[in-house]
Amino acid sequence: MKCNVIFAFLGLLAGSLPLFAQVNPIIAIEWQRSFGGLGFESGCRVRPVAATGYVVAGTSGSSSNLVGNKTSALYGSYDLWSIGLDPAGEIRWQRSDGGTQLELSYAMVVLPNGDMLHAGTSDSYTDGNKTNANNGLLVDPWLVRIDANGNKLWDRTVGTTRLDLEPSVGLTSDGGFIFGAQPIPRSPNKPDFMVWRLAANGTQIWNRAYGGTGDDLLTTVQQTSDGGYVLGGDSNSGVSGNKTEPSAGYDFWLLRIDAEGTVLWDRTFGGDAEDRLRHVRQTADGGFILAGTSKSTASGNKTSPSFGSNDFWFVRVDTNGIKLWDRAHGGTGDEVLGGFDLLSDGGVIAGGYSSSEANGSKTAPSLGAWDGWLIRLDADGNRVWDQSLGGSNMDAINTVQQTPDGGFIIGADSLSLPDGNKTTPVFGEADFWVIKLGSEKPHLHWERDGGTQWRLVLRGLPNQTYHVEGSSNLVDWVTVRTSQLDAAGRSILESLIDGSPQRYFRARD
Asked: Hey, CA dihedral for 375, 376, 382, 383, is it positive or negative?
């Protein structure tokens, strides 16, 4: 294997607790691209597609052939805009979908055959290239299925006769979809979680509503390994309806249902202020990791402290929804979570935007007004590294996902000119910004293993061998051992006790 950057770590100072100095393993940007026109593009989401590259989805208000690289039509004030990219980030195809009114993009999933389902809202009639009418006079969720070459297969309107907002979508094992939205009824009633089970052609199999007497706002829905579903979002409902635990305000609300939509259990997590759940993912052991944004101090059933106005907040629960741990991460400003993914080693990658300098648990410097902020956590929710992405204006990460090569693909919105670590232009008011990061480099750190015992741990890509060296004087390095990482991407090099002599370690690939 080739050798690249080496990371040095301070070992033990005699008679003291173990210390380490980690060089922040900034991951290299392999390529980046801006997509847009003269108008406003937002909500950029990107996902890998096997063999072909990537697909991008979001909202566009730009006309074609004016400025930038948008060539597809603008049917209304805003449309759904979808782009197919090759592995190097170059445009393979692009298309706009919408009517003569307003379409907004909210979610996108990629099917195993390379098709994508673009989920948004629409208040258009059957005009433009929209063929499926609304269910009521107001906004409805709208689904567009597109093949791997950018051809539309069908579009479907899903919703109620009320105002239906912020759709979310997940895949099911039979090739269909689980779909959610927030129906807003007339006052004094409150919104509920609303879920539709759809076949592969978009037709409805069943639908269910869930909630209490307050506001219940669905933001994520996924199928679980047992064929049921997990729903997540925000709730300020007390014990009422099918909500069984009280809220202190807007809290995370997690709901498990079976394959037919029957409630199995629900759990509420939050503190003394607003806590907004955005993502839920099932872990290998059947539990779940919840990811969102929190304003709360350590209160209620939130145990981690608040660093600033808003922080990223992560909650780990077991298969029955019982909390195992919670972790907040951020600086003294605002951190608002956008994207989230579980990694092959059981850890987490998450992104959003940050207005903080390097303080709190944020070590990456500020580059502008808002930066895209990326944070890597281990399987216990502890920060491994963090990185800022952006220029001197406003940049925000909406999605982040690990790629098959061990790197990451990021979908963001950007208003920044080329500065900071952004090298691509801004064409209009705001553009899609897609960034491909390389793989993580090997890094060493100490983990406490109960009492006074500490373990020296090497982390990197699973199933790869790394070279580890040690020294007592930072001059004469000798091989400690060659480490083969386990399936979780970790190798325990050795355990050390308080009072051991000063030692240093470094790793390279």
From this structure: negative
Q: What is the pLDDT of residue 86?
A: 95
Angle at 341 between CA 364 and CA 323, to 5 degrees: 95
Cis omega (within 30 of 0) for bond into 188: yes
The answer to whether residue 270 is domain-embedded is yes
Token pair, residue 450, equals 């109960």
Kindly write down the DSSP assignment for every residue of 187-216, as one continuous string: TT----EEEEEE-TTS-EEEEEEE--SS-E
Q: Nearest CA to 430 among 60, 160, 138, 56?
A: 60
Looking at the fold, whether 455 and 316 belong to one and the same domain comes out as no
- Half-sphere exposure of residue 180, counting CA atoms within 13 Å on the CB side? 25
Last residue of a domain, one of 308, 325, 342: 325
**Domain span at 491:** 7-22+447-508
Cα R_g (the chain), whole angstroms: 24
Asked whether 231 and 177 are in contact (CB, 8 A), the reply is no
Q: Residue 373 has what pLDDT?
A: 97
Residue among 345, 394, 344, 342 at smallest CA distance from 373: 394
Domains held by the chain: number: 2
The shares of helix, strand and coil residues in the chain, as percent rounded to the nearest 5, are: 0, 50, 50
Asked whether residue 184 is assigned to any structural domain, the reply reads yes
Q: How far apart are CA 29 and CA 367, in angstroms?
A: 16
Asked if residues 343 and 402 have their Cβ atoms less than 8 Å apart, the reply is yes
Phi, psi (5° rounding) for residue 301? -105, 20
Q: With contact defined as beta carbons under 8 Å apart, do 85 and 55 qualify?
A: yes
Beta bridge partners of 195: 180, 208
Q: Which of 433, 416, 432, 431 is nearest to 39 (CA)?
A: 431
CB 157, CB 122: distance < 8 Å: yes
Q: Which residues contact 151 (CB under 8 A, 6 or more apart)?
A: none
pTM: 0.85
The kind and range of the H/E element at 293 are strand 288-294
Q: Which of 315, 290, 321, 320 is nearest to 303 (CA)?
A: 315
> For tokens 């992560």, what's the residue?
314
Quick one: pLDDT at residue 9?
A: 37
> Along the chain (509 residues), what's the average pLDDT of each consecutive run of 10 residues?
34 31 61 96 96 95 89 96 96 97 95 96 92 78 95 89 74 95 64 92 93 93 97 96 93 97 98 96 96 97 95 98 97 96 91 96 92 94 92 96 92 96 95 94 67 70 75 78 74 63 69
**Measured distance CA(269)–CA(445) in Å, rounded:** 31
The span from the CA of 507 to the CA of 509, in Å, is: 7
The domain boundary, picked from 325, 341, 359, lies at: 325
Locus of tokens 């009492």: 451
